[in-house]
Design goal:
This protein has two domains: about 160 residues, no CATH class; about 160 residues, no CATH class. The protein starts with 7 loop residues before the first helix and ends with a helix. It is built from 16 helices and no strands. By secondary structure, the protein is mainly alpha-helical. The radius of gyration is 23 Å and the shape is globular.
């Protein structure tokens, strides 16, 4: 038996991968910003807790609804279903099946740091209630700053923000009834409009949190100290600067992702719309950070984005590649464990998919802080 038939070959291969990963991580141009990001998360652990809370609640709700749907589909065989639900399976997927499962999450998560790293639902519903109640004066501050920056154009923007918040509040009521019982055309149109507006609030909430993370990173890099109330007001002012970005990405995402579902267009074998959205986000990667840190008008920010891409394209692609390596490793382990434990057919696979959201959210928080630190470094060196 050759040495490659024993445990030595996979162990040696794993060692080479680990050494290569460490070299890429610590010897590349983004090593310093990623180290600074770890220091920021250590100083402000609430950032990680926020990301974990949003990711964990979303995964928990998704698995609960999936289990509810499975139970309803198999009501005639509930005894067999209950026994299967509590049975441990072990069916590891093949490499090709694993890649089919992970390539889209890897692409989306790797580029999410440049536009919106948080999936806000279901926590967006109670937070929409808090926003409409003007807790801490946040809603009033955003509306006031919107009027000051955009004047008459701020009126439809404020109306849109309030309507999106109301839609986020009532979204659970539209998701609960089965479609067969409420198949009236008026109800279907109202439901789709509410879900579309709720998506706008959820995306805006994710952008708002990213602005807060960016200001926390700026605070740490400059050695400043923000009070909680002052940070909230500063985040509201900077968030208003991102109004054009928020609307542009919202309507682009609606056109590419939500409109086809609304029109009933079938999905292609290859999801071109997801890939197209990811490519656009990669082209506009520095734009959100430029708007946050420089407070520019949208046209000037676009020009600065092109200049930044020309001067720092190599470092940016290095960061994207390193981010993808992390997500490939984590998503591979996540998908392999979830499928090996029975996929969606038992409790243990569902628990695995819920629990692995914790390291995924922590990784997203690290990469987001690392991106803001990297942008500040490149921007100050220019």
């Amino acid at each position: 038996m050759g040495w490659y038939d024993s445990w030595l070959f996979p162990a040696f291969f794993a060692l080479l991968l680990a050494v290569g990963y460490l070299l890429v991580l610590f010897c590349g141009p983004v090593a310093g910003p990623l180290g600074q990001a770890l220091a920021i998360l250590w100083r402000h652990p609430r950032i990680t807790f926020i990301f974990v809370g949003f990711a964990f609640s979303g995964a928990l709700l998704r698995e609960f609804l999936h289990a509810w749907w499975l139970w309803g589909e198999r009501a005639d065989a509930s005894g067999d279903f209950a026994r299967e639900w509590w049975t441990i399976f072990w069916q590891p997927p093949g490499l090709r099946d694993l890649w089919i499962l992970i390539w889209q999450p890897v692409l989306q998560n790797s580029l999410a740091v440049f536009h919106c790293a948080i999936t806000a639902f279901p926590l967006s519903t109670p937070l929409a209630v808090v926003f409409l109640c003007n807790a801490g004066g946040l809603c009033g501050e955003i509306l006031r700053q919107t009027w000051r920056r955009f004047h008459l154009l701020g009126i439809p923007l404020c109306v849109f923000a309030l309507a999106a918040a109301v839609a986020a509040v009532i979204k659970p009521f539209f998701l609960w009834p089965p479609e067969a019982a409420f198949d009236w055309p008026a109800f279907v149109a109202l439901r789709e409009a509410a879900l579309w507006l709720a998506f706008g609030f959820e995306y805006g909430l994710g952008v708002f949190i990213q602005v807060g993370v960016a200001l926390r990173a700026l605070e740490w890099l400059r050695g400043m100290q923000f009070e909680e109330g002052r940070l909230g007001r500063a985040t509201a002012r900077r968030f208003v600067v991102l109004w054009p970005w928020w609307l542009a990405v919202f309507f682009m995402g609606s056109t590419l992702l939500h409109l086809p579902r609304l029109m009933g267009w079938g999905e292609d074998t290859f999801p071109w719309r997801d890939v197209g959205f990811a490519v656009i986000m990669l082209i506009l990667a520095p734009l959100q950070a430029i708007l946050i840190f420089h407070n520019l008008r949208f046209g000037k920010a676009l020009a600065s984005c092109g200049k930044f891409q020309r001067h720092h394209a190599g470092v940016l692609f290095w960061f994207v590649g390193l981010t993808m390596i992390h997500w490939i490793l984590l998503e591979s382990a996540t998908a392999w464990l979830g499928v090996a434990l029975g996929g969606s057919s038992n409790l243990f696979g569902a628990l695995a998919r819920v629990l692995v959201t914790i390291p995924s959210a922590a990784l997203m928080a690290w990469m987001l802080c690392g991106w803001f630190c990297l942008f500040r470094k490149l921007d100050s060196d220019a």
